Each structure stands twice: as C-alpha cells, then as structure tokens.
Design the sequence.
C-alpha cells in the first residue's frame, strides 16, 4: 500500500501541535517554530510508530526535529521493513 | 461566536477540575461560548477544601509547585489574573524527608537544599550538583532519547549510593504512586522539579481558593459554570462530536467536547464502545494501569504550640530504603512500611496525612476505615508528634472510595494513569484522532500529573482549540 509519508507526518504534527497543516512546512523546526516540548515530541514519536507500524530507536528520536527529518527516518524504517 | 441558538455552546467541558477550569478560562477569554458541567457541588476536583466542626481541610491536593518565574502555574495564573485574586505564599522549607539515618530538607533556596544533600552524602557531591542542575534546566532532547527510561535509570546516571537514590525517589512514590524502577524518567524529573525543587506554595484560605478564583474568572470571561450537573452522554455522529446529554437539561449541542474526567469513563460510559471505530485503541486502554489511590487522614487540632510544629511543610517518613518493597507491600496496608506524608496545615489548626493504598471496594473500607485511621494516628505520634492525641478535636479520613465518590476518578486513582514509560505521551488519550471535536484534559492524558501537570494540560488543550478557531475565523474573514 502506497502511503504518502510526508502528508501523514504533517497530519500527525498538526494534531499534536494544533498548528494548521499549511503552516507545517518541511523545514519548520518542531521546538523553535511549532512550540513542541519533550512530552509533545514523545507524542509525535508514539503517533508515528503507530501510524507506520515501525519502531523508532531511542537514539534516533532526537533526530526528529523537522518534517523533513521525520520523513527521511520513516522512509528508512519502511525500506528496512520491506527488505526484510 | 460559532453557535447562536439558545442553550448551545461552542465548547462543553465535562468536569471542573483544575485542568477543565484553566482550559475553560482561556477559551472563554478568547470569546468562545463555553459551558463547564461539574457533577460535584463545588469546583476543583482533587483540589478542594471542606469544613468539619469549624476546621477547614484540604481534601487531597495540599500545596502546589511550578510557580517559579518561568513555571507553568505562574504563567497561567498571570495570564488569567488569578494572582490578583488569591494571595499565594511559599512555605519554606517545602519538604523534609525523615529516614532512619538522616533528615534532608528542601528549601526555597536551591543552593541550601543542594548543600544539605551534599553534607549528608559527601561522596556524591558532584553528582548531587549535576542532578539538581539537570532538574532545573532539563534538556528537552535528552528526554526524547530516554523516553523509555525509568526514574531509576536517571538516578543511576548520577549516583552510586542506593540510600541517596531512595531518598530522592521517596516523595515521588508519594506524589506519583510509583517506585523509581517503574516511574518514567521524564515524569519523575517533572515531579521532582515541580513538587520539590519549586514546591511549597499555598493559597491563603486553603486550596479551594484556587478553583474558586478560576471559576470566578471563568464567569467574568462570560463562561457558564453549572455545578451539581451530571453529564450522561457525549453524542457522536460520523466520528464527530455533536454535543452532550445532561442528566437534568437534556441534549446540549456543541462543536467541541472537552472531557476533564477519567478516560475510561469518557470512552466507555459517556461515549460507549459501539461509537468508537478504533478498536485497537479500546484494547490499548483496557490494558492500561491506573495509578494507586491514597488514604487521607484529616485531624482538627487545638492548642497547638506553633513552636512545636513546622506548618506548611510536607514531612515524609521513610522507614525502608527498598521502595520496590514499599510499593508491593501497599497491598497489605501495613502502615509501618508505607510511604507516608504528614503536614500541619498553614492555618495551624489542622493536620493532613496520606499513604498510597490500593482501591479495594466500598465494603472493605466501611469495615476497615476506622482501624486504618487509628493506626495512622499512632504512627504519626511515634514518628513526628508524640503529644498528637491530646490535641485532637476532630478526626476523619478519606478512603479511595471517598475519592472515587466525589471525583469519579477510576478506582480512586490519585494521579490518572500510572506514570510508567509505556504509558507516557499517548496522543489518543489527549486528542483522539478518531473522533473530531473531542479533547481530553487533566491527569488522565499521560502528559503529566499534579497541579502543574493538569494546569499544563488545560492550557495546552485550550491552545489547540484556539489555533483551530483562529483558522476558522481567518477563513471566514478571507
């Protein structure tokens, strides 16, 4: 099933942060631009894991600070999953 | 603003706990038409006070934190003008931990607290300094990396001495109902910062002053508050809320419903399983563990010599350094081994003390309440205040069933869902992705607990809704 990873991630971030999907562009920094704090960052990670049925390694969680980074990480995880 | 016909609202908030009240105030202040429906006859949830035989007691919440310069509670109270309505005093020291070997004290002056810990544990000097520095200025990204850590993992990162680790964790066992081996590092650090490093604040007149001031402000902002008003149903159509059904007033339509009550009640009773399309979510929630409840002792005292007692300070009695054991033995209700907090209230006429206990049921507490109450008094006499009995003019207690009866918190849980790493930051418990217009706020949202935790949550829920409404307004204008 083809999923539009970016669209889904933007939707998750919109739900957690309250910002409109149009405002959440790929370079926006969660912490600086979208008022995300540690608990919301964890919420975003939990929602991504559930949505894409992947597991984000603890050391990779701090790397998710923009939509772009989140999309890259999820694509990598999905590729690893499909190549298994 | 959005709705216009009579007895309809933009938002209905179920429950006037601190989270619901804060959320309601921000929404009403922004011009949203809001109703708060509370089943009890007074606002506050766990943050209420009551009178018996002329004595005023705080029901459960007995002091608060997060009121430092950039603390969440100070920000919200400033925003809403609560600080103009209530006189808030910081009691110093806020907490003292008494163990078989040492006493350590939390002062308003952080350096003094650090010095106290360092003088008791000189070998851990550097770790103590680093730990407190981390707590007052935590690295947000660090917590993302250690989201699966327990508070024990965090302590192991700083300290070697097991007694020190237990002493630091002890008030968290009381204030969060989990031992360090089970409590999330993030929530543990938050509790340590907000309750202990920045704790000890108290409103003049008792804790009820806080929800009363919020309720008053809410009405000044144009909000409607209905007390003794039970909500029976949250109506959902096509995965979207349409309103609420009140016991007395029937159906009240609204665009948003914000539940400030426990999440099992919200999803299973108020909404109903059949209306929830996401069955995985129901499975997840059914497997979740609520926090333990507490047994609270209330004593009205006379002729108390103010020199003898330190009022406004929380006194913690640690009898066993093995906190896992203390937690497991809570089932036996052996008070000698229990995590106990005792506090002479700032009015110097009353004493409040509590221990964490399992819920059991009404029948159990009907039979055992008096027995537990008497052994609790005996323990306080032995450990804190030998002449206690001769000062007692009134004695009463709240059991887990009492907490349930007044607040409807599932199993009388004192702190919402147990704060374990696996139950942290679950987005569907705050804003379910499968029901439009439904939000939850308060200590069942897995975002944080205690007064700072629920105030954060109430503020956050309002922010989410206001951002949405702003968009709505803008799209109308454009």
Sequence:
């Amino acid at each position: 099933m083809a999923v539009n990873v970016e669209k889904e991630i933007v939707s998750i971030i919109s739900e957690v942060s309250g910002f409109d999907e149009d405002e959440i562009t790929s370079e926006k920094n969660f912490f600086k631009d979208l008022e995300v704090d540690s608990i919301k960052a964890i919420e975003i990670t939990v929602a991504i894991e559930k949505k894409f049925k992947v597991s984000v390694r603890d050391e990779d969680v701090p790397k998710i600070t923009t939509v772009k980074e989140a999309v890259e990480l999820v694509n990598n995880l999905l590729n690893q999953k499909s190549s298994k | 603003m959005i709705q216009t016909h009579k007895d309809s609202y933009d938002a209905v908030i179920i429950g006037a706990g601190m989270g619901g009240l804060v959320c309601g105030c921000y929404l009403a202040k922004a011009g949203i038409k809001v109703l708060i429906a509370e089943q009890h006859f007074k606002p506050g949830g766990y943050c209420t006070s009551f009178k018996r035989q002329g004595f005023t007691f705080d029901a459960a919440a007995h002091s608060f934190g997060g009121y430092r310069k950039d603390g969440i509670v100070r920000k919200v109270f400033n925003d809403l003008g609560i600080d103009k309505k209530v006189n808030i005093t910081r009691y110093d020291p806020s907490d003292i931990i008494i163990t078989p070997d040492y006493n350590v004290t939390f002062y308003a002056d952080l350096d003094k607290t650090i010095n106290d810990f360092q003088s008791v544990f000189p070998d851990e000097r550097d770790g103590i300094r680093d730990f407190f520095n981390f707590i007052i200025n935590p690295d947000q990204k660090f917590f993302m990396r250690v989201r699966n850590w327990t508070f024990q993992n965090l302590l192991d990162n700083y300290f070697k001495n097991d007694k020190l680790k237990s002493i630091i964790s002890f008030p968290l066992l009381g204030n969060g109902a989990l031992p360090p081996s089970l409590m999330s590092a993030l929530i543990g650090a938050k509790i340590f910062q907000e309750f202990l490093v920045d704790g000890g604040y108290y409103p003049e007149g008792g804790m009820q002053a806080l929800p009363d001031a919020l309720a008053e402000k809410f009405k000044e902002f144009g909000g409607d508050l209905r007390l003794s008003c039970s909500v029976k149903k949250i109506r959902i159509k096509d995965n979207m809320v349409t309103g609420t059904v009140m016991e007395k007033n029937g159906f009240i339509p609204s665009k948003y419903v914000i539940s400030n009550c426990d999440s099992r009640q919200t999803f299973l009773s108020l909404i109903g399983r059949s209306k929830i399309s996401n069955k995985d979510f129901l499975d997840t929630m059914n497997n979740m563990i609520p926090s333990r409840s507490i047994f609270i002792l209330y004593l009205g005292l006379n002729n108390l010599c103010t020199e003898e007692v330190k009022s406004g300070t929380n006194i913690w009695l640690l009898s066993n350094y093995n906190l896992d054991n203390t937690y497991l033995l809570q089932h036996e209700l052996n008070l000698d081994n229990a995590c106990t907090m005792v506090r002479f209230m700032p009015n110097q006429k009353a004493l409040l003390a509590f221990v964490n206990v399992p819920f059991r049921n009404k029948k159990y507490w009907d039979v055992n309440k008096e027995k537990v109450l008497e052994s609790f008094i005996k323990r306080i006499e032995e450990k804190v205040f030998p002449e206690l009995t001769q000062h007692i003019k009134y004695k009463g207690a709240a059991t887990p069933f009492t907490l349930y009866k007044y607040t409807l918190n599932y199993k009388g849980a004192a702190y919402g869902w147990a704060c374990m790493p696996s139950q942290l930051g679950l987005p569907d418990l705050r804003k379910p992705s499968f029901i439009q217009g439904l939000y939850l706020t308060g200590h069942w949202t897995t975002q944080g607990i205690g007064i700072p935790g629920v105030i954060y949550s109430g503020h956050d829920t309002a922010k989410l809704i206001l951002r949405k409404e702003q968009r709505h307004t803008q799209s109308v204008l454009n």
